[in-house]
Design goal:
single chain; 138 residues; alpha+beta; Jelly Rolls
Length: 138
């Protein structure tokens, strides 16, 4: 069995945002040379997320509004976590959106559904954050 590991770095210039990382994952898969197996992609920071959904701007705005209702950024003092930092909401948003994705690899391609795309979600941005890509298979 072959394996491939790569770290990606992202910097979202705003506090929150989503970036389609599907093309980047496809590049990693090509670089790996693996044709059949699995790709794991996970955020290595507790205020960021990797998830699969539709690449549609209205949906992304819906995510933002929904997450802000569930875990509003302000007032900062509503979170016991906030003291040294002001990102209690970002930890909760990451928990809701998830840490990682696993995608099957079939015939050298990511085996995604017709509208599925992979995203990096940032909830406490303006700094560099790491994402791990691990591919195993033949």
């Amino acid at each position: 069995m072959k394996h491939f590991r790569k770290e990606l770095w992202f910097r979202i210039p705003e506090r929150r945002g989503f970036r389609n990382i599907t093309p980047t994952l496809e590049e990693c898969l090509k670089e790996s040379g693996i044709k059949e197996g699995f790709l794991l992609c996970n955020a290595m920071h507790i205020t960021a997320s990797v998830f699969i959904n539709d690449d549609e701007g209205g949906l992304h705005r819906d995510f933002e509004r929904w997450l802000e209702k569930l875990a509003p950024e302000k007032p900062y003092d509503q979170y016991d976590h906030n003291g040294y930092e002001d990102n209690g909401d970002a930890h909760l948003k990451r928990t809701i959106m998830g840490r990682e994705i696993v995608v099957a690899i079939t015939d050298g391609q990511l085996d995604l559904g017709p509208w599925e795309q992979a995203f990096y979600g940032e909830f406490d941005g303006c700094r560099n954050k790491r994402v791990l890509v691990k591919i195993i298979g033949e």
